Input
Amino acid sequence: MIRFFILILLFFSGLQINRVFAQAHPDSKAAEPPSLVKWIDFKTAFEANKKVPKPFLIDVYTDWCGWCKHMMKTTYSNPAIAEYINNYFYAVKYNAETKDTIYFKDSMYVNHGTGPRPIHDLAIQLLGNRQSYPTTVFMFNDLKNQAPIPGYLDEKQIEPVLLFFVEMVYMNCPYEDFNEYFQKAFIDTTKLNKKFPLKKYTFAEAEKLSKTAPRKWLININTEWCNSCRTMNKAVLTDTLIADYINKNYYYIDFNAQQKDSIRFLNYTYLYKETNGSMPVHELAPTLTGGSLVLPSLVVLDESMKRLDVVQRFLVPKMLNQVLHYYGDDAYKTKQWTEFRDKFYSQKK
Output
């Protein structure tokens, strides 16, 4: 099975946002405005994460920072943004100049700073000696890595970042790549291929055609609420190079994992089933992926409709193009994926 090993830019050095380093905002002396985000402390977040793992969103602020207050008043008071954060993150509000002793993972942190604005030791560790307020620090579910993003983030800027962590897009690509296609899909749609030349088939149509004109299948398993799925559908699979190759070499099926219609596939009828305690999905979805459903998933079948691979999570066109050719050109029969991947674009020149 194909595995992608891509270095994550943990400190988002290329992220284009409005960075304000210790810059006062006109309302810097105003009282702390309320937000709709349900903020908790580190202790509560760590205890909760032991039972239900989620990524952390840490708002690092100071009492004198006007932009910190403005972000509370705007971004964190947006009902849709706040609801998303409350559902999918442990949101921690942390004063970088607090005098409190804080236990963070397995270590104790205090404020050893001096002067009128002493910096807490944990803030130094979280921000990597780059004191900028506000800074939004994201921590992955396993709490092993952190990604500080300095500066004020408005609603449009923070949305793709939230999706990047919740839907674990970072497993396959750096933020800059994902954001490029997110912007195409939802913000600047003028850059999309409006013709959408990708030919779609139903399971019944593809199975019938395979009897006389066998070719490989590409099944895109997604849902309406999966935003990285929607980004991939709108901005990646519509790429002309990608769509043309799929049309010539695959039967492409767009499969909503929550559709309620029964599906007949390989002499068996699969149904949509409501389940208790988990996300209800069509029973064909976990069958196609071998029991482990991650969204989005691209399932590759050979000409006899046997599964060759399941490629999980968001892919940019450059990566998807490699996968498509690896199986479409039958390279998988003679080459290991890593060998093929490393030489693919150099051989295309």
Notes: The chain has twelve helices and 14 strands. The two ends are 27 Å apart (CA to CA). The first helix runs from residue 42 to 51.
